[in-house]
Amino acid sequence: MNNKLWYKDAVFYQISLRAFKDSNGDGHGDLRGLTEKLDYIQNLDVDCIWIMPIYPSPLRDDGYDIADYYDVSDEYGKLDDLKALVTAAHARDIRIIMDLVLNHTSDQHLWFQKSRADKNSAYRDYYVWSDTDKKYEGVRIIFGDIEKSNWAWDEKTQQYYWHRFFSSQPDLNFDNPVVQDEMLNVVRFWLTLGIDGFRVDAPTYLFEREGTNCESLPETHTYLKRIRHLIDSEFPEAIMLAESNQWPKELSQYFSSGDEFHMAFHFPLMPRIFLSLAQNNPAPIIEILKDTPKIPENCQWAIFLRNHDELSLEMVTDEERELMWREFAPEPQMILNLGIRRRLAPILNNKRSKIELINSLLFTLPGSPIIYYGDEIGMGDNLNLPDRNGVRTPMQWNTSPNAGFTNGTPFTEMVKGDYDFQHVNAETQLANPDSLFHALHRMIHIRKEHHAFGRGTIRFIESNDPGILAYAREYGEEKILVVHNFGDAAKSFILPAEYQGEYINLLSDEMQNIQSLNLNPYSYHWMKLHGK
Ligand code: GLC
Ligand code: CA
């Protein structure tokens, strides 16, 4: 197998380092803590860890506001701890990617400090300044719950600066060639240190042009290709993963002809998985995948259910959003911006069959799955915490004080109530073969034995009931039939004649000759055609 394409078969695991494991009792998760827990991650059979930003930062946006691109924040450790982590992970065949925030810095970054101090500073042009806030009018405001404009007034130098996110995150000016080179150096720095690639934060917004929505502009793609070129020539196994909340056609531009991003999150698919569950009808999943262009051979979708942000509902209609809010966010404090600030298990009312069903989709639809830390044990959230912090609480390791996360005082309030660490923790689940952890581990394990999941084609199979989603994943000689029941009633699925035959049930290892399948409510079936 060509190792350069490792990401096509990989299972990813997203971590908030601060919340994962504290090694020194200061209440903050850190690099050594994660290194201690690599066994756990290896147990889950994960191939690649994505660590959320660990750069020095004033934490006005949980580290997505970077004050220094060339260091890690003290609370996480030293660069040497990161090197030790990378070495220990690589020894286990686990790769590590990091966040690369290109679009903006923190307002505490020295570049911005110098830029705002003086209009004649050499750094002035590192950011986007304007005499008027009427430029680029109509461009959408992403953090609309808090920000009312993409321009912020700077009192001292009497100009506005541009920011797509919080006003404490001024946008870098990519029209300045010096900025372009600065960021290439950042890329080179981390890859030289041993990092295996980047989840590229908000690559959509690098350039601004009047009369456009300032998103995914040709200039932006040209620059992103420069980064890819650097990677291909100097670090050929490293990857770039695009975080761009766009429709499939725009998204696929981020792959270009296989010379831009290796991977991109399939943002429109994610809410449709939840919508399908809410409606007991998988039609939205089928539609969006039929609308998804074929991507170059060396590219891959990243699919996910939840992450550290709100469950974004930007990519659905107003009616669909209303329906999803009613179903999955019945209380007003569960809503943030255009999304839902809850974790997976609470969204699904902790209903085990639904949690397994939705994970079965994550592991069998085309793309590489990304698991959000804690979702493999069905962790809950803490809605008392502001913004998106409620889904970034400490990993619940065991029943000892503070969930075994820290010997000190955790940096934040933990999850309380039904989902607290007495009820939900990794140790208890590891000890119980019937736990969610083991159910997911089994799916991951099977997935990794079959390349059809990561690399194969998908063919949807007509069914006798609209609540059934059936598809064949095929790669070379391998043919796997995947069937899901989105309904709360038992059903029977009659296989079209061409699909009837001898199968190995991958989840139970049984051989079965099937003409039809009995499907329990919310059940999932992975069947491999025998003898092929
Ligand atoms: C991305 C991140 C989000 C962050 C934003 C600004 O959307 O996922 O957490 O706030 O970029 O950097
Ligand atoms: Ca610590």
Short description:
The chain has helices at residues 17-20, 31-36, 38-43, 79-91, 110-117, 177-193, 218-234, 248-253, 269-279, 283-290, 318-328, 344-347, 352-364, 426-431, 436-449, 451-455; strands spanning 12-15, 48-51, 95-101, 129-130, 151-154, 159-162, 197-201, 239-242, 263-265, 300-304, 311-312, 335-336, 339-340, 368-372, 457-460, 468-475, 478-485, 491-494, 501-505, 511-514, 516-519, 524-529. The protein contains 16 helices and 22 strands. Alpha-D-glucopyranose is lined by residues 61, 64, 101, 165, 201-202, 243, 308-309.
Helical content class: 25-40%
Strand fraction equals: 15-25%
Ligands in the model, by name, code or SMILES, are:
alpha-D-glucopyranose, calcium ion
What about the largest sheet? 8 strands, parallel, barrel
Which stretches are low in confidence, meaning pLDDT under 50 for 5 or more residues running? none
Q: What structural class should be given to the helix and strand makeup? A: alpha/beta
Rg, rounded, reads 23 Å
Q: Based on DSSP secondary structure assignment, what is the total number of beta strands?
A: 22
Q: Order of strands across the widest beta sheet?
A: 1-2-3-7-8-9-10-14
Q: What would you call the shape?
A: globular
Q: Summarize model confidence as the mean pLDDT.
A: 97
